[in-house]
Design goal:
The chain is of the alpha/beta class. Helix content is 23%, strand content 28%. Helix 2 links the parallel strand 4 and strand 5. Helix 1 runs parallel beside helix 2.
């Protein structure tokens, strides 16, 4: 998907670094990198819900909805956070190995897979 409007892209990342690798799991991600194409900014936010005992993914989803993102790039996401995000019209893409910057570049080049649905076993259907 090529960007044809201003868009905010969030990437679940492991470390507080713009070149960090993607976090292994969305809800327990320590940080989120948010790229805003309107002003070409990159901001890192600490995930305030990373160490929650339960519902970390749902709370993290709400956090990103408040940040008004359009796209999320993750390596793995649970069913409930996925549903929360997609109900807010946020597209979720499967990230691959590499840095957050590489993931954003792959998205802008249309090289990432849009996750259409997640099954209970955390496998997914893609487009």
């Amino acid at each position: 998907m090529l960007i044809n409007k201003y868009i905010k892209i969030a990437v679940a990342i492991a470390k507080q670094d713009k070149t960090s690798l993607l976090s292994e799991v969305f809800g327990r991600s320590n940080f989120f990198l948010i790229s805003n194409s309107k002003d070409n900014s990159l901001e890192i936010y600490r995930n305030p819900y990373a160490s929650e005992l339960g519902d970390a993914g749902i709370q993290s989803s709400r956090f990103l909805i408040e940040k008004e993102i359009d796209v999320l790039i993750v390596k793995k996401i649970g069913l409930n956070p996925f549903r929360v995000l997609t109900s807010a019209n946020i597209k979720v893409y499967l990230g691959k190995e590499g840095s957050s910057i590489e993931a954003i570049q792959m998205f802008t080049e249309g090289k990432l897979i849009l996750i259409e649905n997640i099954k209970r076993d955390f496998s997914f259907e893609s487009k």
